[in-house]
Amino acid sequence: MKKKRIQRQGSVQSAIGNPQSEIILGAHMSIGGGVHMAIERARSINCRAMQMFVKNNMQWFARPLTRDEIRAFLEHRQRGELLSIFAHSNYLINLAATNPQFHANSLRALTEEIVRADQLKLPFLVLHPGAHLEAGEEAGLEKIIASIDHVLAGIPKVKTKIALETTAGQGSCLGRTFEQIAFIIGNVREPERLCVCLDTAHVFAAGYDIGSESATRKMFRKFDRVIGLDRLVAIHLNDSKTARGSRVDRHEHIGKGKIGLEAFHFIMRSRRFRKIPKVLETPKGKDLREDVENLKTLRGLL
Ligand code: ZN
Ligand code: FE
Ligand code: FE
User: Ligand 1 center to residue 232 CA distance, Å?
Assistant: First the structure.
């Protein structure tokens, strides 16, 4: 017994002694085989942060999580090793959908996903605000605001927040400017239930300059002025295959795309973002080899 305790203490001390392991860095992980499997995948490559879907991301609806699935996740022996676990919503959801059936599906799917995330005790669910299609930006934003109000009013006791993600502005996707995100937050009935996730590839494709350290600092200053850095709860670390301002969303491996390493260098080293979880959403195979490589590149910037 005594020996065990000493060993434990030793491992805690070595973790504290190694600041690299305290960085809240990781990747998006598949939930194939059950939600608890995402934890195992993340820990198999030493992630300290993880993003996950709460159900198949290409389906509108799924059967509810069972008690056993929830327990397997919440009581997973490695769950505590992840300093931050959060959810990403499915790609079909469009709160600004103009087709009534798609819009109704979007409201229901978002509600169900927030509830699932809450059951798994995840602090927030990342959401792309929506695409206005032919309706125009203002009508789209108004529809998103009304939709968020509707969804949140239906689940008053749920603690999981919605984290609006900055987007590349592809097609008619809203959220490509900080002003659009701020407009949504500023006009919903329960702004305290909203927060923000910044995606480096998206802000770059949307037109923000993050090509140098000073430009990146400036971009964050703008974020702070328009939205407020206190709303920032997560950063997606992706390089971009597409040029700045292209408004085309194609993620690339860190250092292999058009952003370059300076923005990542700044984000990784900034004290301000030390407590903000940072996750990769870069292309990868089942063996997670690419994640390992990208995480190595990012840690190398410290
Ligand atoms: Zn996203
Ligand atoms: Fe993202
Ligand atoms: Fe993206």
Answer: 14
